[in-house]
């Protein structure tokens, strides 16, 4: 019997997963190098979807001090669901902080001598990773893969983002108003995520008001968000654009995307059911 890859991946999301990388990995804090390694591992902690890096203890230049309190354990709160993915355990939202762990281990503070700045780290109680330290991506000032800085989080080597221009007729409605309509969308297909429909700016039919919200995608670039103003109500952060896309996703420049799971989507005139996603 055949096995669907999506189901295969989903069955292991509740486990500690790792993958070696040949890249040189460096972490910077307060102008100093905390670690420099060519033996790093990409690590997905149990119930986490996004990876971070772990490095051998021997490649760490800073002090590693156990936290006074034990690591926070992941509870059943704030679970997320991936569309059409059967998982082995409730998944943790990326908004759940690094200090929350779903596996056993020791929480650490990483600090260079003479510096007041400290990074969060975790030493898992695992036979394969007991000589490694996992570092919080957000608690460092900068991460380098070889000599290039990376943002957001490390890229997953098994995660793809494909973009295709289409003649599909795409319309998005909300509260009886057409938000956008086009027959020249750019479709973005991302591993285990819903298809996203990017509209040309002249296809948007409603007023977009700048939001203070910003986000970083390590595959696409830096995004800014927009509130949608309708006569009856303002919907915050319903749309986004990539003002600073990466070179490989430069075709996203100037296009507008909406959380269609919060609106009514029609494809070639056919209404689509609203999907349940982490952004519903």
UniProtKB/TrEMBL annotation:
Pfam families: NTP_transf_9 (PF04248)
Domain DUF427: 170-261
Record-annotated membrane-spanning stretches: none
Highest taxon above the source species: Bacteria
Protein name (record): DUF427 domain-containing protein
Lineage, uppermost ranks: Bacteria, Bacillati, Actinomycetota, Actinomycetes, Micrococcales
